[in-house]
Design a protein that fits this description.
Maltoporin, Chain A, 22-stranded antiparallel beta barrel, 5-stranded mixed β-sheet, 4 helices, disordered N terminus, ion transport, Beta-barrel_TonB_sf, transmembrane beta strand, tonb box, Beta-barrel_TonB
């Protein structure tokens, strides 16, 4: 059975390092080490807010990181946060799953400008097939967020925030690397008097790296070929705004499939390929009915299609969303956000034949009603919200969240939050019977508690601490060929961040620990690393920069795979305002490690080293 068609409840966590991303938490300081805390984020509150005021842990992968290497795919960009485990079946174009704070891959909601990218069949996003060419920054909100986003946001939210043109110009970028890998990007922007337009086109090809540790020379790496484009047009005025955003990405991914005898014993492997296509249409609008009352609306559609080239197997997912909400600033320190969101999710899946066939076409509707109150003063920031979700299959669910951050001293802030969330079983969970589907599954429900401290130790050094516990009832788990509900699972952990910066030098250390437990058996859930560490150090200014980044994971308990440590190196040189040279080496030591078991004594392995160099010309 092709690996992308296997049950998505297969869980695990093996990550690869990525260059320097900045992990930050809210704290009210003004020196250079905290300059990035003035960065505006939108994921936590559905409106722009300084990251230092958010009463939760949130990290960002900043614009210069996203632009550092066009070749770097989304799974690799997300591997820089110690609280995230990333399991990928090899390198480019191979299936990838994100595990935030030890929770399942379906517990992290992935968005692009508010558009839901988690599919109705698998429940997770096709991370390896999502292009980042026009992305400004990536926001990672940790902890439950079902009040604002509905189902799926049990472990956290990853939001891709696209670029909005700020000036007129054009550019072309080319990057070439090992394994016959190259990417080219061309784009143009127009911005004048509040009207903007943007267009991007890109192409990536790679012979890929080894996917499994199977030594047959005929089973080559997973080759990858993709191309796409995006276009955006909008108007931004004080009293109103509107935009239309379209993006499309398609290509071919080669992966490894098994050859079985009549008794289903694995006797060999072969390369097979599949064609993919994803498409996003996003229409947004805002009108200010008064100085303190704004009305927002969004209509969107996301399509995620996958077709096998060696069989008739195919998956077609379509998610349609409509949303209307208002924000009322009824006092200088208080605002109220209220709205309604409805979505229609359709999955059409065909795989295999006979006993192992999966064939269903299902459509599900749900509507959520939400309200959130915010209080924002110089020292205190609070967030209180509730959502009622009416799901066509599983009825009504009510979730809530309360959070607060308080600046107790000029150099010290503390925060706490508590929230509930839920996730409805996916169509694969319920209806893909030969993959372990179980129509009797119940929705997952969670409650999460978190406290944190942020402290400026010196003018150049800051520290962040947090502790959390996430309790999930009816956790959906795949074991022995079938999905079932675990009575209760707990995810207990903590995070530590230490950030230092002086002049052009910087060092960022992030450590995360989590215990992912099946409460009934008191055993660790499979394939999760308890300990993770990232360490980045470098030099950067407006002309040049160089950095090295270490990423390490401990060996998961109850697992035959081991821990690992890899190092990335990144450098750039702005020769002049029109020319930029850059180079990137992912996994400079070419460390090979097993990511998860393929079966019959074989394992998937990581993507190996990828060294590249490129140039950007701007006009």
């Amino acid at each position: 059975m092709p690996n992308l068609f296997q049950p998505t409840a297969l869980v695990g966590a093996i990550a690869i390092a990525m260059g320097f991303s900045t992990s930050v938490s809210a704290q009210d300081n003004t020196n250079v080490v905290n300059a990035s805390l003035d960065t505006l984020v939108v994921t936590a509150t559905r409106s722009e807010e300084k990251i230092k005021d958010v009463p939760a842990r949130i990290s960002i992968i900043e614009p210069q990181i996203v632009e550092q290497s066009p070749i770097a795919e989304l799974p690799h960009l997300l591997m820089s946060d110690a609280s995230i485990d990333m399991m990928q079946y090899g390198g480019y174009g191979q299936a990838a799953s994100i595990f935030t704070r030890g929770t399942n891959s379906t517990h992290t909601l992935v968005l692009r400008d508010g558009v839901r990218l988690n599919t109705g069949s698998a429940g997770s996003a096709s991370l390896a097939f999502i292009d980042t060419t026009d992305i400004k920054q990536i926001e990672v909100l940790k902890g439950p967020a079902s009040v604002l986003y509905g189902t799926d946001a049990i472990g956290g939210v990853v939001q891709l925030v696209s670029k909005t043109p700020e000036k007129t110009g054009a550019f072309v970028t080319g990057e070439i690397g090992e394994h016959s890998t190259y990417k080219s990007v061309i784009g143009a922007d127009l911005a004048e008097n509040g009207i903007y337009a943007q267009i991007r086109g890109q192409r990536l090809e790679s012979d890929g790296t080894q996917v499994t540790d199977f030594k047959d020379a005929q089973v080559n790496a997973g080759a990858y070929d993709q191309k796409g484009f995006s276009a955006k047009f909008g108007i931004e005025k004080e009293q109103y705004a509107a935009s239309v955003d379209y993006s499309e990405n398609q290509g071919t991914s080669t992966y490894v499939d098994g050859i079985n005898d009549a008794n289903w014993n694995l006797i060999g492997l072969k390369n097979v390929s599949q064609d993919f296509k994803n498409e996003i249409i996003n229409v947004k609008g805002r009108v200010n009915l008064s100085d303190n009352f704004a009305l927002h609306a969004r209509l969107s559609q996301f399509k995620d299609d996958l077709e096998q080239n060696d069989s008739h197997d195919a998956i077609y997912n379509t998610t349609k969303e409509a949303e209307l909400y208002s924000k009322w600033q009824f006092s200088p320190t208080q605002n109220l956000l209220a709205g309604v969101a409805t979505k229609n999710v359709e999955s059409d899946v065909l795989s295999g034949s006979g006993y192992n066939a999966v064939d269903y076409d299902k459509e599900v509707d749900s509507t959520g009603y939400f309200v959130q109150h915010q209080y924002q003063s110089e020292k205190l920031h609070t967030q209180l919200g509730v959502r009622v979700e009416d799901h066509e299959t599983f009825g009504t669910h009510t979730v809530g969240q309360a959070a607060a951050r308080y600046q107790i001293l000029p150099a010290t802030s503390i925060y706490t939050n508590i929230g509930t969330a839920f996730r409805a079983p996916t169509n694969n969970d319920l209806y893909a019977l030969s993959w372990g589907g179980n129509p009797e599954l119940k929705p997952e429900e969670s409650v999460s508690y978190e406290i944190g401290l942020d402290q400026q130790l010196t003018n150049h050094l800051t520290m962040g601490l947090s502790a959390y516990r996430n309790e999930v009832d009816n956790l959906i788990t795949w074991q022995n060929g079938k999905n079932f509900n675990v009575k209760e699972a707990t995810f207990t952990g903590g995070e530590f961040n230490l950030d230092w910066a002086k002049d052009e030098l910087f060092t960022n250390l992030s450590y995360a620990y989590v215990q992912p437990k099946d409460k009934e058996t008191d055993q660790d859930l499979p394939r999760r690393s308890r300990q993770s560490l990232t360490l980045t150090s470098g030099l950067q200014n407006e002309v040049y920069g160089i950095s090295a980044s270490l990423s390490a994971k401990s060996r998961p308990k109850n697992s035959t795979i081991s821990g690992y440590a890899t190092v990335d190196v990144n450098a750039f040189w702005n020769v002049n305002p029109n020319v930029k040279l850059f180079t990137n080496i992912q996994n400079i030591g070419d460390v090979e490690y097993k990511t998860t078991s393929y079966g019959s004594g074989y394992y998937y392995v990581n993507g190996g080293r990828q060294a590249s160099a490129g140039v950007t010309f701007r006009y």
